[in-house]
Amino acid sequence: MSDRLHTLSGYLYEYQKSIAQPEEFWSRIADSFFWRKRWTKTLKWNFQEPDVRWFEGGKLNITENIFEKQLFTLGETPAIIWEPNDPHEASRTITYRELFEEVGRFANALKAKGVQKGDRVIIYMPMIPEAAIAMLACARIGAVHSVVFAGFSSTSLADRILDCKAKVILTSDGNFRGNKKIGVKAVVDEALEKAPVETVIVYKRTGQEVFITPKRDFWWHEVIEGVSSTNKAEVMDAEDMLFILYTSGSTGKPKGVVHTTAGYMVYTKYSFENVFQYSPGDVYWCTADIGWITGHSYIVYGPLLAGATTVMFEGVPTYPDAGRFWAIVEKHKVNQFYTAPTAIRALQAFGTEPIEGYDLSSLKVLGSVGEPINEEAWHWYHTHIGKGKCPIVDTWWQTETGGIMVSPLAGITPTKPAYATLPLPGIQLCIVDSEGNELTGNGVEGNLCIKFPWPSMIRTTYGDHERCRQTYFSTYKNMYFTGDGVKRDHDGYYRILGRVDDVINVSGHRMGTAEVENAINEHPKVIESAVVGFPHEVKGQGIYAYVICDMSNRTEDNLINEIKDTVSKIIGPIAKPDKIQIVPGLPKTRSGKIMRRILRKVAEGALDSMGDTSTLLDPEVVEKIIEGRK
Ligand code: WT7
Question: For the Acetyl-coenzyme A synthetase N-terminal domain, which residue ranges apply (predicted)?
Fold first, then answer.
């Protein structure tokens, strides 16, 4: 059964209802799921602690809502269509029945390896169906998955293993990306030196040589050999942990965002159906990686809960050429296509030639996620990909929100370039000024908060509840603070303006400036560093690092390359600074605080609007930084 809205007035009516009577509203939506036991209390909440519980008393398994509930009607329907990196390799179509069997089999294999309800399992895998099977198998037996993007370094992986005390890692021998074959198990081996686990299961994807440590490492195909596909789902409490996903914040190491079972399930399905207006038989494709929340909610859980056919792509947009996305749209007759502005801008740079000759007439809806989409990219997407007939859903949300919060409903909400438009039913947005006063009415700009719980919201940060409270619930009383700036225009439409904290968004990947600084500081010649974001044509934001170094025995170029390598090694290539400027000093206040405002201005080249520099300890340093600007 679908809870899809069909008209603008229907949306407005539902929205009002969802605000006036949230518990009744979400109860009705939740009633269409399969519960082992119905919940007793729809919502209990308190944003001070924070303590938020949805559907308490309810018992269920999310995979029973994907499989058992739908198999009768969808058994032979494709659940996943997988497109490999190499267009000459065959794609794979996995029906709901086949996926159910594979999930059951792997769930049994995990159990046989001693994985129990509540154990943490890290998934460090390429974009292959087995990654989704791994997630669902964990959910099936009540183990908590934590997917780590396979582009992260061994150090990042080790940090996450230690933080969540993982028992098992699921991985692959290697990963095909473009014309590269990348070692994956080798990275795991390195991480395990610092952060050991009991068991590693390795899927053979590239066939490259790997080290197998007896009694710890096992081949995927061997652990499932002869294993039954019949698996009885673990009965979970509504608020049992479903997964942990690490994300960057403005301070310290990445934190493990915790999502729980029932609320996440209800919200991802509901938002998927409504935003994308998915109809049975459609083919939906989200180009994200399962290492990010977009992959969790809108490649795996949302679409599969809605009985959709979801495309999974292993490769990159420019291999073998810049027409690959469009070749895939044509090949699988994709109806809904969901990607990031950075990908659109990267492809835009190749002009329209790579699109020519491909039949994109199957497309009905285009989606955007991860960062603000600039008007130029919006128009290019609309005109050249959507041929002017596909609505664009610019979806604003976060790892912490679990699902899409602000977005047009495709074909229903009138769109406006660069606007995420209106909140989904159940989402109570609030704009506040820096003192926390709510700015009411239209034509206002401020910090974006959410003042009422929604089912898929973050419950805690793993192992450190206080950090969750501090980060999201302490800035403004009784509100969840998103970290984003926002404008509500005269029509009441929302436009996201970007982060107002020390988080930068590089190609839709979230990065903490402190995290990058810590990595830079690991280089033995680095004395101090400061990192800021700057506008970047393709990536949205680039990383600009100001670094004070001991220059003995080094040329500037050498040092810059070494620092880039250090960051790549410690975090991963996605965190590599675009620009590194060696500076004699950093602009600091008398109390020793780095004035990032000034560094941001220099990085973006706004040299005439530097503002007041008189409170600086050493105002001359600014002159020198401007002179050496990259
Ligand atoms: C941050 C969250 C949500 C999945 C991918 C990113 C930015 C996300 C939009 C959008 C403007 C956006 C925000 C947000 N962001 N979507 N449509 N328009 N900004 O998840 O890694 O948790 O990052 O991405 O700044 O806070 P994430």
Answer: 14-65
